[in-house]
Description:
The protein is mostly helical. The protein has 7 helices and no strands. The chain crosses the membrane at residues 22-47, 67-87, 142-164. Keywords: Membrane, Transmembrane, Transmembrane helix.
Amino acid sequence: MDLAVKLAEGFTGIFQAGGENLMGLVTGILPTLLVLLTFVNALIAIIGEDRVTHFSQKMTKFRILRYTLLPVMSLFFLTNPMCYTMGRFLDEKEKPAFIDACFSFAHPITGIFPHGNAGELFVWTGISSGITALGYSVSPLAIRYFLAGIIIIFIRGMVTEFLTRMIMAKSETKKEVV
Length: 178
């Protein structure tokens, strides 16, 4: 009987801890997140969706922008998972690399712009709470993480594009033989 009580208390304790964590988020990061999302949506409305679309089409012509600035802007303005829709401006051979770049940048953006991928916010808050507990600012870590993320998404985009083109070329060669 004592074991059953301890199990029940432990089970309930999990949900109590989850509730405390939720209240911490409601009074902490969530108001910031909501204001930031509202700001980004207002900015898109002010700039105009057509202008954002035209600008994105221009950016896809250059690899360095296609795998750095476009994924960053997509995650910032459209957030996850809408950011992947920006791949519509790309050639079929470039789409997998763009998606890979967006996937890879979904976490590094969270430290500076938490609205970019709210699903990763729990990971970032876990990391940053350790830094804060030591008495340090999390801003330098967030900036370094952001910059390292941009370098990584460029490398991943280039490698994935190369592999995609190679696989597609092999596939087209096999079709021609048959």
